[in-house]
Design brief:
Length: 830
Amino acid sequence: MLRTPQSRPRRPRPQRALAVGLLASAVTASLLGGVGGTTAAARPYPEPPKTTLSLPSPPGGDNVRVLVFHASAGEETPIVNAGIEAIEKIGQSGPAAQRFRVDATDDASIFTQAKLGKFNAVVFLTGGGDVLDPEQEAGLETYMEAGGGFLGLHDAARTEPYSDWFTGLIGARPAAGGPTTAQRATVEIGDRQHPATKSLPLEWKRPDKWLNWTKNPSGYVHTVARVREATYKPGTSANGADHPVSWCRDYDGGRSFYTGMGGTVYSFQETDFRDHLRGALQWTTRLTQANCSASINANYEAERVTSPNQPGQSDQIGEPHGLVTAKDGRIFHIGRGGGDNSAPVVTDWNNPDIGKGQGQVHVYDPKTKKATLAGALTVFGNKGGGGELTKNEEGLLGMELDPDYLSNGWVYLHYTPHSKINRDTHMADRRVSRFTLDPATNKLDLASEKVLLDWPVQIHSCCHSGGGLAWDSKQNLYIATGDNNSSQFSDGYSGNNPEPNFKGVSFADARRTAGNTNNLNGKILRIHPEDDGTYTLPAGNLFTGQEPDEGGDKTRGEIYVMGVRNPARISIDTKTDTLYAGWVGPDAGAPSTTWGPAKYDTFAAITKPGNHGWPYCMGNNQPYRDRNLPDPSKPLGWYNCAAPKNESPNNDGLVNLPPVTPNTIWYSPQGGGPDYPRDANGIPSYKVEEQKLLLPWLKGGGQAAMNGPVYRFDAATASAQKWPSYWDGKWFVGDFYDADQPRHAVLTDPKTVGKGGLTTHAESLKKIIPVGADGIRNLMDWKFAPDGSLYVLDYGRGFFTSDSKSALWHVTYKGGGPTPAAKDLVRKAE
């Protein structure tokens, strides 16, 4: 092996212009507002210079070779020795199909076209400074152009500081002000498929010297692992919640992998780190494939596929409120009930047309690229804006297709019919009905209605209607209902004020609804629709409906989950049947030592029936303060999340409630996952200065949680637009707003999911599902189609209406599959 250090004269090197902004911020192309508008990110690096030099392909078969280069002329350092030894052992161990030979040198003269052509991959073990002259750098460039592989470790990011091409090869440059000593930290493994990370723990705790970056490369490179800054002291140049530590990309004809780890001798003695290097070398040497394009922003295209409505019509889209994808690729999307700005809004209770609106069902066909108005229901849901006692959120709230829709044409609609409102008592009926929608003509047959389930809702005061529908694998239908409760009258904290009422019905006490075991509001229901238009109750719901204690019939057997505030969007993972839901919190902008936590918008991964807290507890079981008559302004005791009691005068259900299951994700204006020290009774301090943010990737402010799907990759689908398998198993969580709020793909730990376990990893989707004035600014719903592409509803730019920005969008992948191509693998499968 070439392990004899050599000193050599250095030829004078021409001064190259200093690279300014080594990783330039993304320059995002304008999003066109009309049909056909797309997003695209500009290349963050200059195009690498092309040469006329030729280079033979690296060897294959039994002669797979790796060159380890260390820029340490003279005596080898302990890290160099440890690194070379580790890579040699990696090359000599494991199955024969994964083995390779290793040569090591500090002689930069090896960087010529003829010499590099003998190697499948080049490893920069250490770095720092200008170690290659122009001819040697050109040799490395030519090697990559010919399909070579590159692996950079830790200080390799400091090498060739004047070269834009090398910056692109590495992906990022270290920033000053980072930590100088090794610290133990947690590495989040976001890519569960790349050979460099698939065997690693979800949360990998290890010591190393952690580097900060002048510019965050995520989105320009494919980040496979991130270091969690909350677990160590990152220094003055910290990168924040998204701190990449290992990444890869197809670069200039070859494959480049870089890891910021490997800054200590101990790293190379660590089994998991050697596995990390092993996988990186398998890919860079062409021993195996990996997709290093899957999270690069420029590989996705977002296109608006519906046009603005014709004046005074809702021919393309109504007030967007949900979508569902059919097995034949068609997209069904619904309008809640508000018309365009020219539609009349009646708010006078003396007028028989108060709140009358049209809840539309539209069908978008990707084959014809046209939207069709399939039909409309006359709903109570066009009451306009204004205060809590004027506006309303009822209407057409949710839609699902029967699992056998293509053969029977059945669709299920969750809505509030205008014909059933009582203008005297300000009450209405909400219902879930089955209709027939002809798959051949895209026409909804209103006369075919069969009402499965209905229940009373108050319509005197806004808000929280919920609306989502979803199926599990046993063809049970889940129905998400809001708490039907005012947002006011409790200072923005727990919605538990029993005092205000209209004609005997309290509209500000969610203990009447969400916290009541005998009320269907503020719940996620689970029923099994039958062919005759009725339903049965599946075994295993939260209540049987016949609980014997506390005086008899005080529960509803349809309830699967209680204690939710406004679950507008729910989804079910087709692989695990896990239920996912999100709901908005109350309005308090800060925690109160008197009343409890600030508003927490919430996402929950739900694996079994349970009580998710509202209006007693939120987040990770943080309690609110009780209040009651005769003076609800005076606080009583704190709720006990382990054994909550409903002692509201408006409760007609059980007093003793199921224990509260903590939720997966919660965020407030202060940030994501606020937590506080607790006293001997388990009551948090609720002092902002004492809070710890357990989910620092989340931001709050004006917020409205919009739950999304779990992506499941289907290898049998031939679509070139489908999202890569990298996203398989990731849960999409977002917010109606597009500022600092979430629009992320997250991973959960199978061992703690459904038990309040925190997410293990999150990555932003804001450049893939674009934000901004001409992007998807008000995310209302998002679903994956059978072909693996994503559809997204943008609500528009006003409330209780539709406008020119209300639209259905289509987000597709165009980055290709794994590399290298199967034909280019150096060892063929037997």
